[in-house]
Amino acid sequence: MIRALVSSIVLALAIPLAAQQSMPPAPYAYRQLDDPAQEAAAQELMETLRCLTCQSQSIADSDAPMAGDMRHQVRIRIAAGESPGEIRSWLMQRYGDYVSYKPEVSSTTWPLFAIPLLLVLVVGAVLLGRFRRRA
Amino acid sequence: MSWRLWVPLFAFALFVGLAAYQLTQPKDDFVESRMVGEALPYFDLPPAMEGVEGVSNATFADGKPRLLNIWASWCLPCIAEAPHLESLQEQGAEIVGVAIRDRPEDIARFLARHGNPYSRIGRDDLSEVQLAIGSSGVPETFVIDGQGVIRYQHIGDIRADDVPVLLAELEKVR
């Protein structure tokens, strides 16, 4: 009895999700472009774009419907002759750094690159000092 | 004992303290649109079901500020915000809907059950408008001024205390 109740509740909760998934995906969400060079460019770009609804995957890795729609956008724009850089900046204009899955040095991210370098330098200086003293 | 011996411990304590502080801070998962302040890009969506009109960017360029609500019948928080959209509409806001990845029959069923506050509903099967205006989920609500410029973004479902905020944002651009 309880099991039937629980399973019916779970099923009812799953209906909206099922509806979201039951729409056919965008035409170019899972279909590659016919031109291998264009498809390679699209694939490379998709790996540097972040899925907005799953957040820890690139759109190339995600099966979220919105990631599919983003792949569709990338592929039809590449097929129409837009450069990967143009498509990237079109998305960055809308979502900012968030949509980027490619580490880039900017006014906010430079410490991430500078701190390890600084630490290596400090360690190097300390080691150099010790070796000299011993010698 | 040299004071230098304590330096690593202090550095460690500082790191632990910083990590503990960051862990207690609420996490902000919202991806804000950079399109606030920009004009709506060109789009032209077909009607989402029979008996309603479709939505294009030209819809918003007639001098009247409107709300643009991104939603879907499969979206659970959209059910929660339905009564608040209704109260926004009752208080004079015109709400234009964009249905994401949705079917006409599902939309009709949703509106019959939860009320229809929309003056128009466009059908966006490929999330094209969503991507073009920098929206990253459903539901989201944008305030569009009479010239078709995006003025404000509300992320997530509209709760009772968001209603006066959205009315004030609409009033601001009137």
- By secondary-structure content and strand pairing, the structural class of chain B works out as alpha/beta
Classify the secondary structure makeup of chain A into a structural class.
mainly alpha
Rg of chain B, rounded, reads 22 Å
- Beta percentage of chain B is 15-25%
Overall number of strands of chain A: 0
Topology of chain A as a string of helices (H) and strands (E) = HHHHH
Quaternary structure annotation: heterodimer
Number of domains of chain A: 2
Give your account of this protein's structure.
The complex is a heterodimer of chains A (135) and B (174). Chain A is mostly helical. Chain A is 62% helix and 0% strand. Chain A has five helices and no strands. The mean pLDDT of chain A is 87. Chain B has 174 residues and is of the alpha/beta class. Chain B has one domain: Glutaredoxin, CATH 3.40.30. Helix content of chain B is 34%, strand content 20%. Chain B has helices at residues 7-24, 76-90, 104-114, 128-132, 162-172; strands spanning 44-45, 55-56, 66-71, 95-100, 118-124, 140-144, 150-155. A five-stranded mixed β-sheet of chain B has the order 5-4-3-6-7. Chain B has a two-stranded antiparallel ribbon with strand order 1-2. In chain B, α2 packs across α5 (162-172). The chains are: A mainly alpha (135), B alpha/beta (174). Chain A binds chain B through residues 16-17, 19-20, 23, 26, 52-53, 55, 65-66, 69-70, 72-73, 91, 93-96, 98-99, and chain B through 29, 31-35, 72-76, 101-103, 106, 125-128, 130-134, 136-137.
Topology:
The complex is a heterodimer of chains A (135) and B (174).
Chain A: H1 2-22, H2 36-46, H3 65-79, H4 84-95, H5 110-134
Chain B: H1 7-24, E1 44-45, E2 55-56, E3 66-71, H2 76-90, E4 95-100, H3 104-114, E5 118-124, H4 128-132, E6 140-144, E7 150-155, H5 162-172
Parallel strand pairs in B: 3-4, 4-5
Antiparallel strand pairs in B: 1-2, 3-6, 6-7
Helix pairs in contact in B: 2-5
